[in-house]
Each structure stands twice: as structure tokens, then as C-alpha cells.
Specification:
- By secondary structure, the chain is of the alpha/beta class.
- It is 26% helix and 16% strand.
- The chain has helices at 3-12, 27-35, 53-56, 117-125, 144-150, 159-162; strands at 18-20, 45-47, 61-64, 77-82, 96-99, 133-136, 154-156.
- Strand 5 (96-99), helix 4 (117-125) and strand 6 (133-136) form a beta-alpha-beta unit.
């Protein structure tokens, strides 16, 4: 699989933003992947580790796993991930946040949804879910309209794309 060609193809076909999350890759492997993606798309890439690459490749920003991470100065913190409604009260510290798993995960066996559809709708009605919240987990063409109807700001797709 030529990963950089696939990522470039996704961008060429309308992908707005790409989160580069490869927790088991070292910095050199990550840098090599970035070198093979055309520079015109670098400002649409958010990285989840090896934050020092952000300036070398003029990336959009970083996604942090927790606030205790060693983050270099002048890094644009873009996003983080939450798994419970109670965490969403910190959403204004970020451009957007992922909430997961909305549906049962495709990429992680046994990683089941934390939410019912009625809980999600109630959270939207109460202003907890809004355009800053990106749905993640089990997103497919069969349920993407539910994400729109509930009022999420968007959807992140992982297992459905990479599983193909």
C-alpha cells in the first residue's frame, strides 16, 4: 500500500483535513511519509505525535492526547479527543474536539459506543453537542446522516476508509 499516494488522492478528491496518527512509527518514518505528500496539502494535516515536525513541514497543527504532553513552543494545538459528555465542557480550549465512539468502532474490535441516539440528541438540544464536536467511531455512509441530524460539526472517518 502506498500510503502517501492514498492520502494525496483523498486530498485531491476533497478531503478537507487529515489527522496523521501513527503511534508506533518513529519520527523518521513519519517525516518520510510527510515528504511524500505534496507540500500543497501540508497545511491541512494535523499530527498526533512527533510535534517537532509541525514547523519543518508547515502543518496545520497538533492533536493532543492529554494536557500533560510535552508540547514545543509555538505549536498550534488544534484538537483533542473526548469520550464522555462531562469532558465536553473543556471544548472551547480547542478549534474542535472528537467525541467517540459514537457508533461501535470499525477499527478497534470490542470498542463499543458510549452513547445512545437519544442521549446524543438530548446533548445537542442542551448545547453540549455543537459545531465544535466531531463525531468519531463507526462512521459509515449508512449512518452519516444521523450525525448531521444530531447536529455534530462533522464526522471523522477511520475504519471505514482504511478498511477498504
Amino acid at each position: 500500500m502506498n500510503e502517501s499516494a492514498i492520502i494525496t488522492g483523498l486530498f485531491s478528491n476533497g478531503l478537507e483535513l487529515f489527522h496523521l496518527r501513527k503511534p508506533f512509527d518513529n519520527i523518521y518514518t513519519t517525516a518520510k511519509l510527510l515528504k511524500n505528500i505534496p507540500m500543497q496539502f501540508h497545511n491541512r494535516i494535523v499530527i498526533h505525535q512527533h510535534y517537532q515536525l509541525i514547523n519543518d513541514y508547515k502543518l496545520k497543527g497538533i492533536h493532543i492526547k492529554n494536557n500533560n504532553e510535552n508540547i514545543p513552543n509555538n505549536c498550534n494545538i488544534i484538537s483533542t479527543s473526548f469520550h464522555y459528555f462531562s469532558e465536553l465542557f473543556n471544548k472551547n480550549n480547542y478549534e474542535y474536539v472528537f467525541l467517540s465512539p459514537i457508533f461501535n468502532s470499525i477499527s478497534k474490535d470490542g470498542y463499543s459506543s458510549n452513547f445512545t441516539l437519544s442521549e446524543l440528541q438530548k446533548a445537542h438540544n442542551n448545547g453540549i453537542i455543537d459545531n465544535k464536536i466531531i463525531a468519531l467511531g463507526g462512521i459509515t455512509p449508512n449512518n452519516i446522516n444521523i450525525i448531521k441530524e444530531i447536529g455534530f460539526g462533522g464526522a471523522a472517518v477511520l475504519g471505514y476508509i482504511w478498511g477498504r
